[in-house]
Amino acid sequence: MKCRICDQELNEPFMSLGNSPLSNSFINKDDLYKKEEYYPLDVYVCTNCCLMQVDTYELAENIFSKTYPYFSSYSTGWLEHSKNYVYMMMDKYNYNKHSFVMEVGSNDGYLLQYFKEYNIPILGVEPSSETAKVAINKGIPTHKDFFNMNYVNNKMIKYYDKKADLIIGNNVIAHNPDLHNFVKSLKYALKKDGIITLEFPHLLQLLINNQFDTIYHEHFSYFSLISIIKLFEMYELEVFDVDEISTHGGSLRVYINHKDDYTKKVTNNVRHVISNERDNKLQSICTYDEFRKQVEKNKRDLLKILIDIKNDDKTIVGYGAPAKGNTLLNYCEIGTDFIDYVVDVSPHKQGKYLPGTHISIYSPDEIIKTKPDYVIILPWNIKDEILSQLNYVKEWGCKFIIPIPISTVID
Length: 411
Prior knowledge:
A hairpin with a 5-residue loop joins strand 16 (399-402) and strand 17. By secondary structure, the chain is of the alpha/beta class. Helices cover 33% and strands 21% of the residues.
């Protein structure tokens, strides 16, 4: 394959996570015995631009435009994060009723609802029909579309006759295999003095903290600040600031403007993060070889924990059915022989089965009924929120398994 940013030929993957189905392809009961599609989950890195990436085996249109089961509003921590972002941007840039705020990949309106409280004109662009419908029912203006040049030219500009003061993209750029079309679309949708903010998991944190489960087919690319800057520079767009934030195990929020907008100066934050990435040798293949070794070790360590627990005749269930959990379970070959079931707060997942492993998904109430000995927390990035919710399991001595960054058991 070729690098999605600089077109360099990528001959060999530095790591393989085996073959697995799409991480969000949850299975209905009637389809349990039908053939599943499996794809190689091989990981490449471009040492020229520091972009880590997986190959495109399924079109984004087929992944996201159908039934996509992720609804942002089911995480209270994510809602709080989004609310704080809106308050921060309002205070910093004084958006008002004359502004126009747009979110790409707006999901169920989880963020734009807070701008709406200030009576600011808003627009969401969301390719998944189910999540877009939820947003519309909340009163959030939402287009069910993929954000690309066709959309910007033929729908946004044509019908709104204006460009955006602020464009938001939270955990969306990784889902787009055509990075150049995406960035070009952002450029043309942004006002001359407008701002783009993008949030995405930081490649450096993924490597340092062994977050291999965040690698799956729907995440086509994994970004460093170096790679983001190189990509946007190709379109005369400039990263002028960056925040290091805690979401998803460690993310970056980048602030981008037109390069000829001289009202904003590049901050020391940008230079600091770039320096940190270079110090950690993100442009050296040796760094990725070491990461691969840690991934393989974590698989062995986790399996040893689970085998010891099952040999002691104890029960294990899972909390959460995130995409990252499906990467973990399929790569480590953990199925119903280890985990009795998983629970998830989203009713859109309950009653279905995990792809590949066919573990059943229930409501969290099932934990109270069955009183398991161990709960493995699959969305480890919000483990504090989950541990608080499951405080009641201490009544029967239940323990927790945290698989990332190091497989551990805690009381």
